[in-house]
Write a structure and sequence with these properties.
The strands form 5 sheets. This protein has a 6-stranded mixed β-sheet with strand order 1-11-10-9-14-15, sandwiched between helices. The chain has a 5-stranded mixed β-sheet with strand order 4-3-2-5-8. A two-stranded antiparallel ribbon has the order 6-7. By secondary structure, the chain is of the alpha/beta class. The chain is 42% helix and 17% strand. The protein contains 18 helices and 17 strands. The structure holds beta-D-glucopyranose. Beta-D-glucopyranose binds next to helix 7 and strand 10. InterPro entries: ATPase_NBD, Hexokinase, Hexokinase_BS, Hexokinase_C, Hexokinase_N.
Amino acid sequence: MALEAHSAAIAAQFDYTDDQVNSAVNEFRRQMTEGLETDGTSLSQIPTYVTGVPNGTEKGLYMAVDLGGTNFRVCSIQLNGDTTFNLTFSKVAIPRELMVAKTAQELFAFLAKQVELFLQTHHEDHFEQHVRRRMTMSSPDGYKDEHVFRLGFTFSFPVQQVGINKGTLIRWTKGFDIPDAIGKDVCALLQDEIDKLHLPVKVAALVNDTVGTLMARAYSAPGKASTVLGAIFGTGTNGAYVEKLSNLKKPLSGEYDKTTGEMVINTEWGSFDNKLSVLPNTAWDAALDKASPNPGIQMYEKRVSGMFLGEILRLVIIDLLKDPKVSFFRDENSSSNDWKSTTNIVSDSSIYTQWGLDTAIMSVAAADNTPELSTLRGELEKQLGIYSAGLDDAQAFKAIANAIGRRSARLSAVSIAAIVLQTGKLTDPAYADEPIDIGVDGSLVEHYPYFRDMIYEALRTIDGIGEEGAKRIRIGIAKDGSGVGAALIALVAAGMEKRLTTADYLGELRSNAKRNNLTVVPEGGETAAQD
Ligand code: BGC
């Protein structure tokens, strides 16, 4: 079969029809309900103890760190109280060996060191006090309370949360694998290492990145409808949404504020439908799963998120390269190559190694509409050592890559739609004509061309949403959301420490909101935050 027909047939295996999208939405909603009722289900539906979203009036200087994918980020955030903030951050790649370290301590010591470097670079005043103290004292105690930074810890892995700054790791995802950390309180692990360096920092809140994204979006885009969902489509994927407490049937162990009648739920939707009742499963999906560190788990994430799309494509390409019936990245002689050369793949090309194809090249393929696909061909050479790829090769590469990317976007529409329908806001007259606001972050949704357009295209075909509903759904980027969100939750936690009552805090928020003509959705917590 000619290459063009062959690649079209492969691309077709990644089609996910409107009917399939609709059945998946129904199944997603069923699994959501199941997760709200029982522990240990496919969709974990983890209660976060955060019982409201911010309204933009919060103020203060907080720190946040973010561990969740390829990079570790440290930031400080000045919340200005008028829906704006100022953010300073540093970012460092996590060394691969630490992702699979023998002990949790090795990883967390590295993280604490980055916090120290950040303070040294960006908050010299705090850092100097720390150096003086380190020379004169052996204990971190004795800092004046106002000199201790409250830090929100965004930890983007499934955690059983038992309080605002306490939670045990359920399982690793996204290529991390340090069995020693499973079942341990990740806040305590970080605090111990921070204390060893005598830093004036207190880990005040534990936050999943999706919860942070939801908080950040709600802070920046307050309004009547408020934000209903924070979602990540990046290295991994997940979403957190605001659920009615009356729907949350499984028992909760920690204390929380019941007055709002709501709680933010971390769905951990990466593990939606691990049994594959509605998810697609090509031979390449199955091969990827089999070779992964966590077979049978995170099955939705393995079809949607950035860490995996490149690997699916790589596995397809390897099969094509081995197929004697198709001539892919291979020329009989220079006359069959439009550049009048012959294609060569260097023997140490990363195409031959697991995870060796970076998903970013799929964005290049989707964006390249030049007649000769010259940008894509340049990247194939630069990133994968594929020299003089022919136009037909590049077209086949692009067709298959696009099909994998499109399937990911259509699958992403499934979780978004299910949650929008679950909130009931599309049909609630109280919200008539109001936008249904969704905050998203992550490399895929930010950089993959037309990702959001493809999500909207699928949303329009979903029962209960349709053209009209899709128009009301506002999907907006909440860039760096998790850091800002973690700071907002650290603020709640700082208030809790100061033992303000919930009534004090809500009263303050309400009067602020009145001044600013906003609708208050109060912050959660047993007690409350202050400026
Ligand atoms: C993790 C989630 C996280 C998501 C996005 C997933 O692998 O399980 O906790 O929110 O990645 O970072």
